[in-house]
Design a protein that fits this description.
The protein is α+β, with helices and mostly antiparallel strands. It has helices spanning 3-8, 11-32, 43-53, 63-79, 90-101, 104-124, 129-210, 216-244, 266-275, 293-313, 359-369; strands at 279-285, 318-325, 329-336, 373-378, 384-391. It has two domains: 3-127, no CATH class; 178-245 and 256-391, Histidine kinase-like ATPase, C-terminal domain (Heat Shock Protein 90). Helix 5 (90-101) packs antiparallel against helix 6.
C-alpha cells in the first residue's frame, strides 16, 4: 500500500495496521533470530511483543496511555531476559504522537519512560555505556522535535481555518450588505418614479373629473397630461427593469434606456409639475459645469421628490425653484408658499394625496451618499423649504443611513 493510500485510510485502520506490523516484525525477529545469551523466544515472548506493539492502534486517541503501556510491556519483555527487538521503537512512535497533539510539557513528561526503556534496551543489548546514554538522550529529543513541529503545524492550520471561516463570513456579510444597499437604491428609484408620476396622474385625473362637463378643453388638457405622465412613468419603469435585467444575449436588440434621469431634463420635470397645477418660477445662477453622474441624478431626484411633495400636499402652490452653481458645489432650493387656504382649491383641484413618509428619508440618503447636505423644514407663515448642497467632486461611496426629519413625508 502506497503512503498516499495509507493517508486516506481512517485513522484507526491505519494505526491498527502499524501496530499489527510492529507486532508481526517483533514476533518474526524473535522466532528466527536467536543469539546465545538470552532467554529463548517462546509464546510468552511473542505475547509481550504484541502487548508492546498493539497499543499503537490507539496512539491518536490515547497517546500518553500508548507510551506508558508500550514502554511497560517492553520493559517486562526485557526484564524476563528476552533479546532486544524492533519493539524498542514502539514507545518512540507513541512519543511522536504525544508531541504531535499535546503541549510541550506533556511531551517532555512522556519522554521519561521512553528514555528509561531505551537505557534498559541498551544495557540488555550489552552496548557501550556512552552509546546507551546517547541513544537514551537523542531518540526522545528527536521524536519530540518532529512531533512538536507537527503540533505547531496543526495549530497553525486550525487557526488558518478559523481565519478563513471568519473571512468567508465577512465576505458573505459584505455581499448581503451590498445586496441590501442595492435594493434600497432600487427602492428609492421606484419610489421617486411612482410617487411623482402617480401624484401628477391623480391630480390631473381628479381635475378632469371635476371639470368634465363644465370645461371640456380643461378636461381634455388634464387627460392629455395624464397620458403623457403615464408614458413617462412607463419609460422610467422600463429603464429600471432594463438595468435589472441585463443579459449577455441582449446583443442586437433595441438599445437600452438611459441609465438614469439627468439634470438637463429638469425643464421637462418643471413642465410636468406646472401641468399638475403648480405655479413654478425657475431660476439658475452661476456657470453650469459637468457634474459627477451620481450628483447629477441626486439633484434631479431631489427636485422631483420635492415637487411631488408640493403636488401632494399643497396643490396650486407657488414654487420658487433655484439652481446655483458655485466653484465648490451645486445648490438646489425648492420653496413653496403652501398653496391656497387648506391646500385645496374647491371645485378646481382634488384632495391632497397622502404620502408614505419615505420622501425626506430618501432625499437625505441620496445627499449623504453624494457627500452633501440636505435641509427640509416648514416655513414660517406656511409652505416648505427644501435645500440640498452637493460637492462638485466625485463623491466617496458611503452606506445609506436613515434619518428622521421634520416636515412633510
Amino acid at each position: 500500500m502506497t503512503p498516499s493510500r495509507l493517508r486516506r485510510l481512517p485513522p484507526l485502520v491505519a494505526d491498527s495496521a502499524v501496530a499489527v506490523g510492529f507486532a508481526a516484525v517483533g514476533c518474526i525477529a524473535g522466532a528466527y533470530y536467536r543469539p546465545p545469551g538470552w532467554h529463548t523466544f517462546d509464546a510468552l515472548g511473542c505475547a509481550l511483543s504484541c502487548l508492546a506493539a498493539l497499543p499503537l492502534a490507539v496512539r491518536r486517541r490515547l497517546p500518553v496511555t500508548t507510551v506508558l503501556a508500550s514502554a511497560a510491556a517492553y520493559a517486562v519483555y526485557l526484564g524476563l531476559g528476552y533479546q532486544p527487538s524492533v519493539n524498542v521503537w514502539t514507545p518512540v512512535v507513541g512519543l511522536l504522537s504525544v508531541a504531535g497533539c499535546r503541549p510541550l510539557a506533556v511531551s517532555w513528561a512522556a519522554a521519561a519512560p521512553v528514555g528509561a526503556v531505551m537505557v534498559l534496551s541498551g544495557l540488555a543489548g550489552r552496548l557501550h555505556p556512552a552509546l546507551v546514554v546517547a541513544q537514551a538522550a537523542l531518540v526522545p529529543v528527536v521524536a519530540i522535535a518532529f512531533g512538536h513541529t507537527r503540533y505547531l503545524l496543526v495549530r497553525a492550520n486550525a487557526r488558518l481555518r478559523e481565519v478563513t471561516a471568519d473571512l468567508v463570513a465577512e465576505q458573505e456579510a459584505r455581499a448581503r450588505n451590498a445586496v441590501t444597499l442595492e435594493r434600497m437604491a432600487i427602492a428609492r428609484e421606484l419610489h421617486d418614479v411612482v410617487a411623482h408620476h402617480l401624484s401628477v396622474i391623480t391630480i390631473q385625473a381628479g381635475l378632469a373629473e371635476t371639470v368634465l362637463t363644465s370645461d371640456v378643453p380643461a378636461a381634455r388638457g388634464a387627460l392629455r397630461t395624464v397620458a403623457e405622465t403615464g408614458r413617462g412613468a412607463l419609460d422610467e419603469l422600463r429603464r429600471l427593469l432594463t438595468v435589472l435585467r441585463v443579459q449577455s444575449d441582449d446583443a442586437g436588440q433595441e438599445p437600452p434606456y438611459e441609465a438614469a434621469p439627468r439634470l438637463d431634463q429638469l425643464p421637462e420635470l418643471v413642465g410636468g409639475a406646472t401641468a399638475a397645477g403648480l405655479d413654478i418660477r425657475f431660476t439658475a445662477a452661476g456657470e453650469p459645469v459637468p457634474l459627477p453622474p451620481v450628483v447629477d441624478v441626486c439633484v434631479y431626484r431631489v427636485a422631483q421628490e420635492a415637487l411631488t411633495n408640493v403636488i401632494k400636499h399643497a396643490p396650486g402652490a407657488r414654487v420658487d425653484l433655484s439652481l446655483d452653481y458655485t466653484p465648490d458645489q451645486v445648490v438646489l432650493a425648492i420653496r413653496d408658499d403652501g398653496g391656497p387656504r387648506g391646500g385645496v382649491r374647491t371645485g378646481e383641484r382634488p384632495e391632497t394625496v397622502p404620502g408614505a413618509g419615505l420622501g425626506l428619508i430618501g432625499m437625505r440618503e441620496r445627499a449623504r451618499i453624494c457627500g452633501g447636505r440636505l435641509s427640509a423644514a416648514p416655513r414660517d407663515g406656511g409652505g416648505f423649504d427644501v435645500e440640498v448642497a452637493l460637492p462638485l467632486r466625485e463623491p466617496r461611496r458611503a452606506g445609506p443611513e436613515e434619518a428622521e426629519g421634520q416636515g412633510r413625508p
